[in-house]
Specification:
Layout lengths: L15 H15 L4 E5 L5 E4 L1 H7 L3 H9 L4 H4 L10 H8 L3 E9 L5 E10 L5 E7 L1 H99 L6 H13 L2 H33 L7 E3 L1 H11 L1 H4 L3 E6 L6 E3 L1 H18 L4 E11 L5 E9 L29 H11 L3 E5 L7 E7 L3 H17 L2
Parallel strand pairs: 7-9
Antiparallel strand pairs: 1-2, 1-5, 3-4, 4-5, 6-8, 9-10, 10-12, 11-12
Helix pairs in contact: 6-8, 8-9, 9-11, 11-12
């Protein structure tokens, strides 16, 4: 049946024209490199070519008997679309040829194939199906697809890596710019601190001269007044003309007022000298950088010193309530911590428009992990910080002040200083209730405390 000279199947016998068409079609399919079959409307095999016999895995006689028995095509050589959507029947329904690419099939010997299936409806209800083996091409395409997928994934990974590195570089550049700005400001603050310390030192000598000599001046003036009173005691022994001249002179210079006012002036000079000396001491204490680095500092004294220095900002309009009892000494960079206190207290004073109040509460406190430390809370009666701004107040260069009134680095540097000491600086600001800045500092920086603990352990181990 797979030979050109074979008989025409009974189902295809009819008119001479139809038989002639079948012979030509069979001659064409016999020499085709593709497997081919002719089916009837019930999907029974009427004809198969030699290549189809190889796909079916049956000998010629076995395949011929299968066609005599009326076997359907999917019973002899099954494709993945045969049972659910036969291509030949669909082509017959639509009345035109159909093609499906890369359909899976299995040879009689079990080999998996990829086929291109064509179905052509014929007159008389017959169907011609051809099967082209593209397994090798499909494998090449599959490998090529795998390579393309791998190349695409590699490209995506590379692009993502480039984006990540670019973002890292951008972040590093931003951080570098911020750090550069902070270092510049810190250097300016350090230079300013040294300048203030130098000025305070230079002022100290003349102020001490004034303060130290005002008592002597008062004593001398009192002696002169005592001398005048002595003259007054013996004035009756003088003649009338001399007494008259003395009386006129005393009246001309308003002696009684002069004597009383001179005492007041001396007291004012003494008070002013004491105030100036205190300011000089506060400047020296505030600008102190600690010499060798870390030193034990009295934070209560640092707070008092800072409040004295910002006195002109308070201008008798802000009442400052201190609660600083029982604070232990803290091992720190005193000048840097003073800078933190100055920034927070200055911001609190500037946040209050008109009259108001600042509460400064400091207590010994146990930090996270059971670390002993101190907690300083500065609360102002200002309008508070809006919730949309609060998360950004510690960002470098962020400020709500008018241009020229602030750099936006004060709180950023303050937070950095506190962190370098192993502490925390944060803010709580309920709407409309003012702002509270909280500074938590350990009694000793982490590396120092760890060194002390290691020394203690080492001493215990070395004990006999």
């Amino acid at each position: 049946m797979s030979h050109e000279s074979g008989p025409i199947p009974a189902a295809l016998r009819g008119s001479r024209e139809q038989e002639h068409t079948f012979r030509n079609l069979r001659r064409l399919l016999e020499g085709s490199p593709d497997a081919a079959v002719i089916l009837d409307g019930e999907r029974r095999i009427l004809y198969f070519n030699p290549v189809y016999q190889q796909y079916a895995g049956l000998r010629g006689r076995q395949l011929h008997l299968a066609t005599i028995e009326g076997k359907q095509c999917f019973e002899v050589f099954c494709l993945e679309i045969c049972e659910n959507a036969c291509l030949g029947l669909r082509a017959q329904q639509v009345g035109r040829p159909l093609r499906v690419d890369e359909i899976a099939g299995r040879r009689g010997d079990g080999e998996e194939l990829k086929l291109i299936v064509n179905a052509v409806p014929m007159e008389g209800g017959f169907i011609v199906e051809t099967y082209r083996d593209v397994t090798a091409d499909a494998r090449v395409q599959s490998k090529y697809k795998v390579l393309l997928d791998h190349e695409r994934r590699t490209k995506e990974i590379l692009e993502q890596t480039v984006q990540e590195r670019t973002e890292e570089l951008r972040q590093a550049n931003v951080e570098l710019s911020r750090t550069h700005g902070q270092l510049i400001l810190q250097e300016k603050m350090s230079s300013l601190g040294r300048l203030v310390a130098g000025i305070a030192h230079e002022l100290n000598n003349p102020i001490n001269f004034v303060y130290g000599n005002v008592d002597f001046l008062g004593s001398y003036v009192e002696d002169l007044f005592e001398l005048i009173r002595t003259y007054d005691g013996v004035a009756h022994q003088l003649n009338e003309s001399a007494r008259q001249k003395i009386a006129e002179r005393k009246e001309a210079i308003e002696f009684e007022f002069l004597a009383e006012d001179c005492k007041k002036l001396l007291r004012s000079i003494q008070s002013g000298a004491e105030r100036t000396a205190q300011i000089v001491r506060d400047l020296k204490a505030f600008s102190r950088q600690g010499g060798a680095g870390l030193q034990e500092a009295d934070l209560a004294q640092g707070i008092d010193t800072t409040l004295n220095l910002i006195g002109p900002i308070l201008k008798n309009r802000i009442n400052v309530v201190r609660d600083l009892e029982g604070l232990p000494l803290v091992l720190c960079h005193a000048g840097h911590v003073n800078q933190v206190l100055m920034n927070i207290l200055t911001n609190a004073a500037q946040a209050i428009k008109g009259e108001g109040r600042i509460d400064v509460v400091a207590r010994q406190h146990v930090l996270e992990g059971g670390v002993p430390g101190v907690c300083i809370r500065v609360t102002d009666s200002g309008p508070g910080i809006p919730p949309d701004i609060l998360p950004n107040i510690f960002d470098p260069f962020f400020t709500t002040k008018a241009p020229g009134e602030g750099t936006g680095l004060g709180l950023a540097i303050s937070q950095r200083i506190v962190r370098q000491h192993g502490g925390k600086l944060y803010c709580v600001s309920p709407p409309g209730e003012g702002a509270t800045f909280i500074v938590e500092l350990p009694l000793a920086p982490p590396e120092t405390a760890e060194a002390v603990r290691a020394a203690v352990v080492d001493a215990e181990v070395r004990k006999p």
